[in-house]
Amino acid sequence: MLCVALISLLVSPFAFSSTSHAMPDLTQSGVGYAALVIFALAYCLVMGEEVLKLRKSKPVLLAAGLIWILIGFTFQRLGQMDVAKSALDHNLLEYSELLLFLLVAMTYISAMEERRLFDALQAWMVGKGFNLRSLFWITGILSFFISPIADNLTTALLMCAVVMKVGGTNYKFINIACVNIVIAANAGGAFSPFGDITTLMVWQAGHVEFMQFLTLFAPSVVNYIVPAVIMSFFVPKTSPDAVHEYVELKRGAKRIVALFILTIATAVAFHGLLHFPPVMGMMMGLAYLQFFGFYLRKTLPRSLAKKRAEAEAHHDKAALQRLGSVVPFDVFRRVSHAEWDTLLFFYGVVMCVGGLSLLGYLGLVSEIMYTQWDPIWANVMVGILSAIVDNIPVMFAILTMQPELSMGNWLLVTLTAGVGGSLLSIGSAAGVALMGAAHGKYTFFGHLKWMPIIALGYAASIATHLWVNGHLF
Hints:
Structural class: mainly alpha
């Protein structure tokens, strides 16, 4: 009863000034203030994920429900329930397109991981016996070039595993190498729609075409190279002991990579040629993987018999043991291994930001940032904000505002939202994940001491974009 009374007070006609015939401005109403408080509290819990051990999806899912309860009561009293339903449907459609797109991409990455592609790459790097400075550069450069395809989070975790294995008890090297990996993964993800959720959002919204993202390549390189060059002088050239490990790729590993590339091409074709949402191409690509999985299962007995005969002929007991642990490839098991916490967190963010937009807050922010300020400075501020608050809600809020921006400014905000998260360890999914993977060895304060150098790279990348792509503004 107390909750009902509170809602009734918040949505009473005296809580805001509007009529049922006009779109209400609820930014200075009890409902609006309550929604802001709910979202702020939820996001405080999200930012404290590492300390609280509370998955970030939980608070935003609850916040989304509470905000839309307030909206439902409010618009029902105003006689504008159709407006609220229309806004709800629009936000659900936005989310469903991104959910299915990301789910297919994550399924392919999980399939590559299960086929041991990443294990083989890790074993190759560890077994080569590179010195620490060489490994610093190799993991950074690979992070930069793998993240545009495999996303920045997966790439960062892969490279972190290499650094952890080689670094051992050298915590200083592990920390600086992890900082380097986070910067490289975020910078590499900025010039590809597949590198980060924010770039994917901009691409799906139609503001930037697939090939236009490549104009951010030079600024992204500068964003990584500037801090990496400076930090490399603090990495010793000592050589750790090489750890030789044999990793045998599972059957079909390379063909799954080829199918993923074909899936990306299909998504681009749907968007570029047919002007359909890219998710249509991605879902078609999931069919490629399902049919290939069917082929692997059907031909497994014949493949095992052939390999067993070869192993027995060469008296290879290790090969025979490996054959005994072979399990059929299952696409739906790969789907279950997707990052569901991230996907559900994204739902909560979309619905929370969508609710705040309906209440009028995003219009208010857009008026200040993109009308009263120079758009370039507004987009620079977006990057700084994304280091404190996750870049997903920041970018979704900008897309919901729909400011009138030139192509140069859309590319700039894509760049800043992607690489701005590198300023703090909590500013990106890659940084948060590495704090968990290298617990106690890569820390918030360990990253913070390099922030001035990272900020130098951030400023240099913006200057490079303004210089190289100045004709787009």
